[in-house]
Amino acid sequence: MKKNTTPATTDTITKSKKRTRNTCHMKPKPEPEAGFAISDIEDIQFREDSVAEIRASLLKWYDVNKRDLPWRRISEGEASDRKAYAVWVSEIMLQQTRVQTVIDYFNRWMEKWPTVHHLAQASIEEVNEMWAGLGYYRRARFLLEGAKMVVEEGGKFPRSVSDLRRVKGIGEYTAGAIASIAFKEAVPVVDGNVIRVIARLKTISANPKDKTTIKNIWRLAGQLVDSHRPGDFNQAVMELGATLCTPLSPDCSSCPVSSQCSALLKTKHDPSALVTDYPTKVAKVKQRHDYSAVTVVEILESEKGTVDTSDSGSKFLIVKRPEEGLLAGLWEFPSVSLNEKDDLVTRRRTVDDFLKNSFGLNVNRSSNIVSRDEVGEYVHIFTHIRLKMYIELLVLRSQDLHRKKDKGSMLFKYVDTKTLATMGLSTGVRKAYNMVLKFRQSRSSPISR
DNA sequence: AAATCGGGGCC
DNA sequence: GGCCCAGATTT
């Protein structure tokens, strides 16, 4: 048998006809050596018997091993729209986010807004409060927009992939998930788990971020999906990827489809091969380094003007971020971006200009200043940014302070600690605030430490 | 096709 | 410190 030197690709079919597309973009490929062919991803497919085996084994495994997750508890019994809403909320929360992280957020969300009609009545401030800490806040905004859209169009939930795709924030994956899980449409889904599982099943070495690769993974997932139980099958593949076929340490000995896995087979012929070689690694883009001065401005409202260490009588200045870009529309403490080498004097001068120009706070007159202290530094890591924050607490007396009413381009307000405790702050801002609270605490009662 | 958009848990 | 997670949108 000629192909026995390429066990990893025994399922692939060497295509004889030329492809009509892409050919002109490709460098002429040398004719493969006899007995060894790197298969083109377009040529990869599952055999019929393999499809049947994978469906049966995976569904059987899933029925026994599926995790008890809150969004799986809502049956489509009386109202399939309620099921669809639950799936929708869960799928949006699950984008780029682990199941364990989502569970509590999901339960709180469903308690506050049990149906799409409840959600449609919510404000963006409430939504941000419920979402705070989950990240990718655009998802929450789209969810609210989508709920309003659904209700305005009669409250009937979109049922097909094509209808679902028109809702803001619902892409190919989420449309497929809702349609298959809530409405039994026989469509596949492709997320990070599915890419990993299929890349291993078929030893796909193409760049998993490449559009052509993704397109072909969709094609292969479409071959696999079980038309009788599409929702369960899709969840089964993802469950497998999340629990057994994991990125770094797959548990192949427990895998229900190990007999169908080319990557595992390859390791038995090639001692240097690993299942974790698939999908292939992709170089990451480098992080940007940002620097900012975060100033927590506390206004003492008490008549005495003394350093009041209790919370009563204090207001804190918060500012609304622009509606586009990073952390869009979220509230934060006044912040200015810095250059890497800016020293304390420069930082404070920049802050003072900002406070004066944007909020009418003149902090140059020392008569207004009760205290001004460096609280500390904190490095907050985003996926693409490393943000170093210089945090300070600036306490000002209320008298003689001509504060602006917010009328300019910058939206701002003064709130108390009680409001700050519950409102939707991003994690980095929340961290800075907690540092300030701790600093105030230690200053007011040094003995208690 | 590449960049943007959060945060956290695990190694 | 790196990895990557039940991705979508914009440019």
From TrEMBL:
Localization (cell): Mitochondrion; Nucleus
MF GO annotations: 4 iron, 4 sulfur cluster binding; DNA binding; lyase activity; metal ion binding; purine-specific mismatch base pair DNA N-glycosylase activity
Pfam families: HHH (PF00633), HhH-GPD (PF00730), NUDIX_4 (PF14815)
GO biological process, one term: base-excision repair
Domain of life of the native organism: Eukaryota
Main location: mitochondrion
Residue ranges constituting the HhH-GPD domain according to the UniProt record: 93-243
Keyword Repressor belongs to the record: no
Catalysed reactions, as listed in the record: Hydrolyzes free adenine bases from 7,8-dihydro-8-oxoguanine:adenine mismatched double-stranded DNA, leaving an apurinic site
Cofactor note: Binds 1 [4Fe-4S] cluster.
Gene3D superfamilies assigned: Helix-hairpin-Helix base-excision DNA repair enzymes (C-terminal), Hypothetical protein, domain 2, Nucleoside Triphosphate Pyrophosphohydrolase
Compositionally biased spans, kind Basic residues: 15-27
Enzyme's top EC category: hydrolase
Region (Disordered): 1-32
Function: Adenine glycosylase active on G-A mispairs. Involved in oxidative DNA damage repair. Initiates repair of A*oxoG to C*G by removing the inappropriately paired adenine base from the DNA backbone. Possesses both adenine and 2-OH-A DNA glycosylase activities.
PANTHER family hit by this protein: ADENINE DNA GLYCOSYLASE
Record protein name field: Adenine DNA glycosylase
Naturally occurring in which organism (per UniProt): Helianthus annuus (Common sunflower)
